[in-house]
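Technical note accompanying the year-one report. For the benefit of new consortium partners, we illustrate the data format agreed upon in the data management plan: each record pairs a sequence with a structure-token string. No post-processing was applied to the example shown here.
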Amino acid sequence: MDSPSSIDLAKSILQVFMVLLGFGMLARVAAVWIKIPDIVVFLIVGILLGPEVSGLVAIQADSALNQIILIFGACYLLFDGGASLRFSVLKEVWITIVVIATLGVLVTATITGFAAYHFLGLPLLVAMLLGAAIASTDPATLVPIFRQVHVRDRVAQMVVSESALNDATGAVSTFAVLAVATGSGEFSAATAVGDFFFQSGVGLLAGAVLGYAAAFIIGHRRFDFLAEYAPLVTLMAVMAAFLSADGLHASGFMAVFVFGLMLGNKESFGFAMDSEEGRRLDEFVMTTALIARMLIFLLLGSQIDFRLMEKYFFGAALVVTVFMLVARPAAVFLCALPDRRAKWSLEELLFMCWTRETGVIPAALAGLLLGVKAPGAEVIAAVTFVAIIMTILIQATTTKWLARRLGLLVE
């Protein structure tokens, strides 16, 4: 029999979920009414619900409940993003995706690091650690935006694919710099490159195998014995893809993205679902993805530490401004412009420069640095909070307007 304390804890968790889902629904309605991406409203409402304002939601960033929501939510949104992409489009732009998700992250981290060194007066290694921690774009943020703002296929698919691949680069570079900054190791380019290819390669393989297996058992003409349970198959396989890759010390986020890509392109392997079963799966994925991004961004908003932001805000805002207006454009033009195969137009390049929101992955890295008491971890967390707020409130809200001005919006 459960003790009273465990029952009280269960009730308090249920109450928190009730509050999150209730206010999340209202935020979604407001976002549709004012015609902006819903993650913007979720973030603002999360701030209002958090301990810094109303105190209705107070889930600690290092709690198991918070980690479950963030990990599963990010995985599901990555799966959803992968499932929306098409091989026919990706084969045109794969060179840009690979280069910008690797070299582009390093360019962004370096420029941002020098900005932190200059504006915050940090030691150079700590500044570079900050740059590495926030350099990767965030799939949990970008996937929902491109679900709601329909831009030219190849641009949207390039940005979403980049965000899935570059979390491995961001993590590897962050921990490589951390090892040097703490004196626990020396930087080795060969080791860093090897770690990146291992994490990405094993993640890609795990996702591909599970994606093909899932497509087989829900879409094969003769052996689709789990077709009517397709929503449960995808739900279980998302968790299996992440855990299998993560258990091998590879990129779990890469695995779930590739799993979604394989499942979303199952017709390319000769698999197809009954139209009714396909419709049910689409509705399930759409609803689950809405709940995932609702919980993620409400929680992110509720956990923003205004004490840290106030302490470092001016310098952090200058760093993030350089991050948005200098580092990202430099990475895009250096990595995408030389791709003669893709033949990016100036309008497409400018749009990609503006589309690099920060969210769950950088927040998780900042949290890990705080947890291990890394040098400058408090400043890194503050800059990460400011980057999340500035990029989501400024860039996400103007994505549709910019796409229309550049002639990239598909109505």
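Partners are asked to follow this layout when depositing records. The CA atoms of residues 200 and 251 lie 6 Å apart.
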